[in-house]
Amino acid sequence: MSSTASSVLRVRAKPGARRDALRWEEGRGWRVDVKAPPVDGKANDHLCAWLAKEVLGVPVRVRSGASGRDKLLEVDAPADLVEARMRAAAEAP
Fold first, then answer.
1. Is 43 a member of any domain?
2. What's the CATH code of the domain at 83?
3. Residue 1: inside a domain, yes or no?
4. Is the pLDDT of residue 28 over 80?
5. CB 70 within 8 A of CB 12
6. How many domains does the chain have?
7. Of 21, 39, 69, 90, which has the fewest CB atoms closer than 10 Å, so is most exposed?
8. Using an 8 Å Cβ cutoff, are 20 and 33 in contact?
9. Which domain holds residue 15?
10. What is the distance between the alpha carbons of residues 29 and 37, in angstroms, rounded to a whole number?
11. What Cα–Cα distance (Å) separates residue 23 from each residue in 1, 4, 26?
């Protein structure tokens, strides 16, 4: 029997941005700008797909906050790996 570690990631999403981007904001946490508009779940789908493909390399799902900017994402990886990959991919402030 194998088990896959998963973790929860808190982010603040900004839909409708010019480009996809990730950054750490001191005192606020992770901010993810996504190009997709906040219509019919497109921004959430794009957010999860972009983080999974371009940043984390593992599946990502919205756990809560689907209709707001502040979201909890479920990531199929241990928290230390998620943090390391987020920091490596983040833009400098």
1. yes
2. 3.30.1200.10
3. no
4. yes
5. yes
6. 1
7. 39
8. yes
9. 7-89
10. 22
11. 37, 27, 10
Is there a domain that residue 52 lies in?
A: yes
Predicted local distance difference test score (pLDDT) of residue 3: 52
Q: Are strands 29-33 and 7-14 parallel, antiparallel or unpaired?
A: parallel
Question: What is the band of 1 on the pLDDT scale with cuts at 50, 70, 90?
Answer: very low
What pLDDT is attached to residue 5?
86
Helices (H), 18-89: 42-50, 79-89
Determine the length of the chain: 93
Using DSSP's 3-state secondary structure scheme, residue 84 falls into: helix
Mean pLDDT score, 56-77: 97
**Main-chain phi, psi angles of 28, to 5 degrees:** -120, -35
Instruction: Report the C-alpha gap between 32 and 37 in whole angstroms.
Output: 13
